[in-house]
Amino acid sequence: MAIVYRPGRIRGIEVLSCTDPFEFQPHIHDRYVVWLNTEGGEHFHVCGSSDILSPGSISVIEPGVVHANRPCTETNRHLRSFYIEPGFFENLSEQIGAQPSAGYEFRLDPMNDKQLWTQLALLHELMLGDVPDLELSSRVVRVFGDFLERHGHLGNVPRKEGLPDIRIDRVIESFHEGFEDPVSLESLAEIAGCTQYHLIRLFKEAKGMTPHAYLMQIRLENARRMLEKGGSILDSALDSGFSDQSHLTRAFRKRYGLTPGAYRRSI
């Protein structure tokens, strides 16, 4: 059993292969996640609802959306994920003829598309292996081009229910601008223009976790990116707002199922 993170040779895509029974607690990504299982089912919770991702189905999680997942059984699991930069989909949607202003949006519930599921599973395996760059890039464009055309709602983006809370948006923007700095609940409440009590309640309603927990996810994603680019564990910790290397190591293992050192070796 193993958890393997591997930067893809295709710019803007990283892959995860997980056969370990590790439970991913509530977390976020700074990229789109296209994920599927080729063995066993996956319980997942997102946006206040729960479902099971069964073999043959595909799911998409948008950047910044809080979600959690665990295997249905501890002995039969192969979770395969593609972590995709938003710019990759934007560029690809233009390549397949969509107007840049049209946009795209994916449904939250699992998509039952066995043909595309088979193509994605094969592509995932190839990205973990060693195939010629031209063959791999051609397959990526073809498979994800089909994915956008079938499930991206190109040019017909449905309106999301409800209105975004600008107060929460301001707080999250401040997180991204200074995630490495100490933050107080009082200062966040001032940014949001509400009381500390109401900030916590509003944040939990909007994102499913406290402001501190959400900030921790942003810091972890930044540390992971630094490690991916060859940064040291200590520098990745301090530059991402962690007090020391041990603090990062504990949080990183809980979030990704690996220590920072194991993650570096994996990639």
From TrEMBL:
Q: Which SUPFAM superfamilies match?
A: Homeodomain-like, Regulatory protein AraC
Q: Which UniProt keywords apply?
A: Activator, DNA-binding, Transcription, Transcription regulation
Q: Does the keyword tRNA processing apply?
A: no
Instruction: Tell me any Pfam family this protein matches.
Output: AraC_binding
PROSITE patterns hit by this protein: HTH_ARAC_FAMILY_1, HTH_ARAC_FAMILY_2
Task: Return the InterPro entries for the record.
Answer: AraC-bd, AraC_XylS_family_regulators, Homeodomain-like_sf, HTH-like, HTH_AraC, HTH_AraC-typ_CS, RmlC-like_jellyroll
HTH araC/xylS-type domain span = 169-266
**What is the name attached to this protein's record?**
AraC family transcriptional regulator
